[in-house]
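BUG: 3D viewer hangs when loading the predicted structure for this chain

Environment: internal workstation, default settings.
Expected: structure renders.
Actual: progress bar stalls at 90%.

Input used:
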Amino acid sequence: PNINATNNWWGTTSESEIQTMIYDWFDDSSLGIVDYSPYLTTPDTIAPPIPPIGMDTLAVWEDSVSIFWLPSPIGDLAGYKVYFDSDLSGFPYSDTVDVGLDTTHTLTNLTIGTTYYISVTCYDNSGEESWYSREIEVIPGGVGVDENVLPLHKSFYLSQNYPNPFNPETTISFSIPQDSKVELSIYNIKGQKVKILAKRDFEKGIHKVIWNGKDENGKPISSGIYFYKIKVKDKMISKKMLLLK
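Structure tokens produced before the viewer hung:
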């Protein structure tokens, strides 16, 4: 879409950055339904709240899942609501919980092996509620960095880093089905490479790499969303993580 990238919610004049933010909020089903224009102006109490961004999985256990998102920048923020169900059709969701001003939440007593679809909204002091955030899919039953739940030697796999959010260190686990040269790197939200964690030959199997939140020059980096990307031959996988200080 054509975007006026001046005096907007994010304090940036980069049109590509704003588009990235917008596409992180909405999925294709919202196109033609949501009026984007209020979200591209200076924040105030008249425009509807912007949907939470940066939503992702924090941890998944046998019958529960923990999620997180970034704090909303609106000045009259009153709280967040987590929506979820196991119906692929998306909104409206069958279950909701008001989590107040928390930016993390754990859903419990879930059914093992069932796919859950989760989204978050925020609302202001006037009761105006935002559109849904980006929807994530989670299957309770043991997804994590425990090497026992990785597909041992059978596939090319990248696990969610743990802990996430993190400060100052986090562990990244991956599995490769055969001996290969692996490149594992960290990127910021602008797509700039921050750190090369590994670029060498690995034996087949499961491996863990620790990142200490520092760049190539050994300097600590600022809080924010980062991406870690693994490349093996012509295959590549990337995931998102959050550094909070």
